[in-house]
Structures are given as C-alpha cells and as structure tokens.
C-alpha cells in the first residue's frame, strides 16, 4: 500500500499546483513510483489524457513531473464553467452533463466523490506515493460540510498535509493561523508543516513568526520558496489577462467562455499580448480568436457587441486573423450546433471557407502533423485537440500524421488570404513555426527579425523542482512518511 502526501493552501492561488508538481518531480528523481491526484478541479484549461479523456492541465503537468502518461485517474472530476452559474461536469474524462452549483452540491457531488475515492484507493494500491492537491481553502465555512477536495480526501487516504501560503500577497501568518484555528483537532493532527511561497527578501526576518507557529501548533515550517520567474501555467481562475502592446500588436479576444488560453504563452513571452473585450479596441497587427467553452454563445456575443464587425474591418485593412479551435469554427461560413449550445445553424464570420458541424462525440487527442500553409509547408508541428466540431474546407492548414502516437492521415484547419484556423491547441508552442510566423509579420511592418528562446515544459518542471528542493526539508518529509 502506497503513502499519500497532500498539498492544501490557505487560499486559492497559494501555490498548491506548482508545489505538488515540484514534489512529484523531486520524489520521482529519488526513485519513487509517484502519481498525482486531485479529486475535483475547476478549470477552463484542460488537456487530453492517455485514455482519450479530458483532465485539468494542472494534473496533466503533474503527471509529466512524475514521468507518467497523463491519466483520467489523476483528476476524476473536472468542472468547466459555462457561465449562467452552470458548469459542465467531466467525470473520468467524459462530459456527463451541465449543472448549477446548487444542483451539483446536492445531487451529483457525493456520488462522484465516492467513485473518486475508489480511484484514489486504486492509485494507492499500485504506486509508492500519491501527491494529492487540494482545492481553494480547506476551511471555507459555507463549503466545508460539502468539501470533497480537501480534508475529507486527506482523512480517507490517511494523508499527511502540507499547508502552503502565498507570502507575496501579505498576511501569510494570519492566513495560516486562521486556517489552523478553523480546522478541528483531527484535521490539525494531519498537518505535517507549513510552506511559505513566493518570498522576496531575507528569510531570517521571518524567524519570529516561525517560532510562533511552531510553539503554538507544534508544527514545523518546512521551507520558504523564493519568488521564481517561470513559464509554468498558473491556476487559471487567478490569471490576469495582460494588455501589452509589443513591437507587433497581438490582440486576443477575451471571450466570455475563453478556454485553453495557455496556447498563447509563447506569444506573451516573445512579444507581449493584448487581451481585448470591446469593438473599439480591435486594431492589432495580429488578431486571435481563442478556444471557447461555448462557441456559438461567444460568436453571438462578438456579433452583438460589434467585435465581429471590427475584426472583419481590421482584416480588410490588412490585419492577420487566426482562430484556434472554437475561434477557428467562428471564422468559418457556417456552424451547425445541435450538441453544445443546441442553437442549430448559425452564420459564421466568413473569413475562412469552412463549414462546421458539431458531433455528439468529443475528440480529445494528442496530434502530430505537417503544415500545408505555403510559407511553412512541410514543417512538423504538434499539439492537442479537445472538440465536438468537425470542419470541412478545400484549403486545409495541415495534415495530421499521428493521433496519440498512432499513424493517421486527416486534414486540419483552414487557410485564408491573411488568415488561418486550426484545431491544434499548442500550435504556438512549436517554436520554429512561431518564430517564422512572427518574423513574417515583423518583416511586413519593417521590423528586424527575432530569434525565440526555445524552452520546454520538461525543462521548466526540472528547473522549478530544483529550486523547491533547495528550499524545503525533503528529508523531514521522507522521515514522516516513512519512505
């Protein structure tokens, strides 16, 4: 029977996901068979699992940190907000319906929690260590009785708990004390120690506070992690959408149901991106319509507030237009959706000659392909797809050569005069393509070429884990877990 170690936070955004990721890599490096787990996650940034299902991107990355193929078992319950106080419920990788928060709390939650604990038991049986991530705070008074992601999971798995707090926000000592005081005795006994995250300065200045915590609760401060610049995705509920006008003015429409916006991180690091929500803001050199959890709803939102007309006008004036997944579907001539929004036939923006029909079965796959777009014809790219839509065009963007590492041959996306669309989430993480594409636009604007600094998620995981390992007491954790 394996051991469990849980990471809980004093608040959302305290650093649970990345601390769990770092510990996954640290224990994997020590030779342990480690897997991640989060019973329930709420996220718009999802990723495909090895089984072809859908999981949170946080658990996807934690799986990579464990050197495991991402599995639906690592995140049994995924809630994807849809607006109007509803969320799509994804269980074991597959959508099982949309419910309001109240409906979910009183009808679905307990049943799914029981099934999720069965999955956790299976992981504990098969692996040395399960690194479990909590959600939000474990002591929200209005939610504690209905919690299925924090202390109930810790009690079920007999897990020791590391409590992490974000000191960069301020109030960390108060947040730890408040959390500890609101936990009952059985829950406090599970706490292994505390970690202070994102610290800037001389940590010796914190020692009087450490002494207070250790004297009051008989729990150790396990470490202080410095503020680290990194390229690992943060928890999406707390992301600040930047408004940066670089040498190229790259604008991304911040749709009401925007999803998988981690697609644009390389553009942010290479140039800067400007998220826009109003028609009068549309004036970029490159305008991108991103993925959407509600393609038709977001298309109608753009139509109603004038953004669609502004994009068409910018396109006529020479702006380059790109659509990713739902954004690609919107750029076409027609969408027939009797599945997601059940809106029937809807006229598209019409920049790309594409017709899209939504199918009942969602495609969730890793893809490798070869570009057909003339400036980069023959270039190999990879990414992933999460979609109901099936699109037809006479001018595809790429040929998909492999699906989940198995040989394939099918067309993806579409090409226009100064536009393209693709189902390939992660297209801009193909650095050779992104460098060439940006330099093509820079040349048009009379700007010098740039060379992108290539980086990989694997390198970022390794670098971040080493920083964490230097700043926490791994030996003490090992001794307590008796590993």
Top keywords for this entry?
alpha/beta; 6-stranded mixed β-sheet; about 475 residues; Rossmann fold; 26 strands; 6-stranded parallel β-sheet; 2 domains; 14 helices
Describe the protein's architecture and organization.
The protein is α/β, with parallel strands linked by helices. It has 2 domains: about 5-230 and about 460-480, Rossmann fold, CATH 3.40.50; about 240-455, 3-Layer(aba) Sandwich (Rossmann fold). About 30% of the residues lie in helices and about 30% in strands. The chain has 14 helices and 26 strands. It is globular. The model has no long low-confidence stretch (mean pLDDT about 95).
Q: From the coordinates shown, what is the CATH architecture of the largest domain?
A: 3-Layer(aba) Sandwich
Tally of discrete structural domains: 2
Radius of gyration computed on alpha carbons: 23 Å
CATH superfamily (homologous) name of the largest domain = P-loop containing nucleotide triphosphate hydrolases
Instruction: Give the neighbour order of strands across the main sheet.
Output: 2-9-1-10-11-12
Q: Residue-averaged pLDDT, rounded?
A: 94
Based on Cα principal axes, name the global outline.
Answer: globular
Based on secondary structure, the structural category is alpha/beta
End-to-end distance: 12 Å
* Content of β-strand: 25-35%
Give the helix level as a range of percent.
25-40%
CATH class of the largest domain: Alpha Beta
Number of strands: 26
User: What does the main sheet amount to?
Assistant: 6 strands, parallel
Number of helices: 14
């Amino acid at each position: 029977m394996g051991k469990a170690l849980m990471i809980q936070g004093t608040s959302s955004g305290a650093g649970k996901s990345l601390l769990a990721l770092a510990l996954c890599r640290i224990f994997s490096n020590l030779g342990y068979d480690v897997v991640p787990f989060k019973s329930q996650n709420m996220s718009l940034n999802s990723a495909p699992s090895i089984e072809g299902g859908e999981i949170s991107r946080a658990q996807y990355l934690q799986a990579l940190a464990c050197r495991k193929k991402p599995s639906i078992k690592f995140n049994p319950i995924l809630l994807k907000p849809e607006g109007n106080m509803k969320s799509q419920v994804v269980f074991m990788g597959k959508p099982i319906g949309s419910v309001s928060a109240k409906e979910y709390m009183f009808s679905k939650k307990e049943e799914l929690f029981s099934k999720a604990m069965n999955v956790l038991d299976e992981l504990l049986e098969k692996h040395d260590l399960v690194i479990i991530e909590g959600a939000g705070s474990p002591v929200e008074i209005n939610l504690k009785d209905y919690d299925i992601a924090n202390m109930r999971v810790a009690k079920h798995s007999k897990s020791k708990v590391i409590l992490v707090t974000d000191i960069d926000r301020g109030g960390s000592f108060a947040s730890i004390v408040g959390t500890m005081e609101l936990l009952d005795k059985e829950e406090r006994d599970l706490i292994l120690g505390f970690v202070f995250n994102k610290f800037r300065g001389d940590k010796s200045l914190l020692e009087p506070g450490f002494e207070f915590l250790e004297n009051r609760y008989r729990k150790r401060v396990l470490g202080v992690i410095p503020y680290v610049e990194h390229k690992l995705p943060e928890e999406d509920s707390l992301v600040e959408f930047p408004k940066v006008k670089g040498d190229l003015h790259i604008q991304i429409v911040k749709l009401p149901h925007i999803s998988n916006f981690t697609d644009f991180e390389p553009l942010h690091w290479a140039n800067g991106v400007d998220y826009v929500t109003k028609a009068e803001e549309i004036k970029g050199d490159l305008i991108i319509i991103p993925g959407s959890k509600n393609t038709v709803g977001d298309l109608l939102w753009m139509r109603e507030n004038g953004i669609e007309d502004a994009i068409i006008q910018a396109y006529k004036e020479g702006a380059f237009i790109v659509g990713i997944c739902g954004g690609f579907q919107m750029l076409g001539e027609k969408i027939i959706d009797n599945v997601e929004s059940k809106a029937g036939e809807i006229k598209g923006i019409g920049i790309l000659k594409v017709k899209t029909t939504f199918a009942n079965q969602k495609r969730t796959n890793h893809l490798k392909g070869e570009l057909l777009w003339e400036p980069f014809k023959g270039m190999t790219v990879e990414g992933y797809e999460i979609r109901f839509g099936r699109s037809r065009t006479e001018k595809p963007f790429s040929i998909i050569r492999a699906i989940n590492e198995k040989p394939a041959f099918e067309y993806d996306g579409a090409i226009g005069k100064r536009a393209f669309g693709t189902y390939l989430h992660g297209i801009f993480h193909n650095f050779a393509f992104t460098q060439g594409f940006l330099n093509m636009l820079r040349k048009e604007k009379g700007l010098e070429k740039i060379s992108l600094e290539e980086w990989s998620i694997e390198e970022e995981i390794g670098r971040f884990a080493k920083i964490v390992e230097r700043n926490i007491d791994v030996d003490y954790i090992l001794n307590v877990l008796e590993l």
